[in-house]
Structures are given as structure tokens and as C-alpha cells.
Amino acid sequence: MASPKYGKIDYDYALQLATTTEDKDGPIWMVNLMSYHDIAQYGDGNKTKITGREADDLYSPLEPLKAIGAEPVYFGEVENKLLGDQRDWDRIAVVKYPTRKSFIEMQEKKDFQAKHVHKEAGMKETIVMGCLPMDFPIPQSALPDWEEVEYPSSSKDGPIVALHVVKFRNRTELGETPEKMAEYTSKAATIGIKQGVRISGWFGVEGTIVGDGREWDQVRFNAFPSKAAFMAVIQDPERLEAQKAHREEAIIDTYTLIVRTKFDRIKESIERQ
To answer: Helix and strand tally (H, E) in the chain?
Structure first.
């Protein structure tokens, strides 16, 4: 299995996915960060005049996923990047696979391979992380109704997900949060609750099957009733102070993205595992 044009395969992690024994295997959530070519690169002298995003729409492997018992549980369009390197991401998707091995087995299916030409043409770069759910740190029953917060959803500013992909300064166990980050999270959660934050899902990263060679520790999907609600949290002076004192000490690499959600079934997919 050669690495595609849009990223490097971690062959050690691929082997782990393929050889996990049945008694230790189970559901895995593949979190995808996607960036597209302006014009799809089909290798036909640009005779095919569609965008990379349109090529990825043609790729959409819903039938092969369904055949192995996998399901898309999140999809959204990236609106802004607040933190991160020079890369600009376009879409976020999460697919729940029934087992690690099923993810590898799908790559060999002929109907999947037939569609993959569109992904090769459309995708400029991607990061695909194999993830396992973490416990939610906020009691979901104690949260205010989105209609009652300061910045509720509106026709001009609907729900968003603040997506955080993080690499901690010091290595941690899968799903473990360093003390400095936990202190920051506690302060940010107190502020976020007032603005209606909901945790769709937090994940520990088991491995990055496709990427640029970097390793990641956690992926956090925090839902807000509006972009304005999230920005009120971001701009809060107490949160900014906690970020400087704790978050910046804990994290060595990160992306923070504002994503306009198309559908979000992450929480339900975790509850059904």
C-alpha cells in the first residue's frame, strides 16, 4: 500500500490496525481534516474541469462504508482557522468503524478503490487520525438551553463546532490530559457553559494513519449555539489569562478551527458503542 499524493501513511499504525486481535479490537473513530486543490488533478491535462471539493463529493464512499458497518457521524465546513500552521483546512469529517480491522479491509474493496480516484484528484492534503472517546468533563444535564444564552443561534449565525487538535508538550497516555491543560480546561469550561458550550465528543488519538509525520494527542469537538457565542468565550479576559498561564504551557502544537456543522451524531455514536 503506497502512500497517496495527499499524505504519508504511518505503516506501523496501519499494521496495528490490521493485526489487532478480536478480543482487543472494537470501534474506532477516524477524524479527517481535509484540504482540496482549487482544480481537481485527474492527470488528464485538466480536461475534467471540476474543483477538488467537487471531486471529493464524487468520492463519498457511503455504500462501501455501509457494507462494512461503518457510518459517518460528523461533517462540517471549516469557516475559520484561529490557531495552527500555514495549512488551511476546508472540511472535517468523522467516520465510526466497527473495528480497526474493518478500516483496513475497506481499503481493499473494489468499489472503494473505484471511487478513490476522485479523492486522489481532489485532495491536496489530509490528516486522518484513529481516535477513541474520552470521558466528558462537563455534566451535560447542567447546561443552559441554547435559546437562553447571550448569543443564541440565528438565521445569520447558526451552530458551530470549535475543533481543537492538540499535541501536548509532554507525552501522555492515550486520552490522558496533562495537569496544566486540565487547569485551563476547568477555567474555560466555567466560561463556556455560560455561552452554551456542549461537548459533542473528545477523543484520544491512538495514531495518525495518514498525515505529514506529526503525532497528535487529542481531538476535541465543542459545539456552540453560534460563532458569536464561541468568540465571547475566546475573548473573555479570564480565559485569556488561563490560556497564557496554563494552555500555552501544556501544548506544543495545535489547530483551532471554527466549523459550520452539516450534521453531528458524534455523541450518539459514542453512546451506542
So the answer is: 10, 9
| Pair (236, 168) in one structural domain | yes
**Distance from C-alpha of 217 to C-alpha of 174, rounded to nearest angstrom:** 7
Residues 205, 129 contacting (CB under 8 angstroms): yes
**What pLDDT, in 10s, does the model give residues 120-161?**
999 999 999 999 999 876 555 568 899 999 999 999 999 999
* CATH assignment of the domain containing 89: 3.30.70.100
127 plus 139 within the same structural domain: no
Between the two ends of the chain, the Cα-to-Cα distance in Å is 30
Burial of 110 (0-12, 13-18, 19+ CB in 10 A): exposed
For 40-72, letters b (16+ CB in 10 Å) and e give bbbeeeeeeeeebbbbbeebebeebbeebebbb
8 Å CB contact between 43 and 122: no
Spatial neighbors of 11 by CB under 8 A, at least 6 apart, are 1
Alpha helices in 60-201 (DSSP H): 62-67, 100-107, 110-122, 179-194
User: pTM score > 0.70 for this model?
Assistant: yes
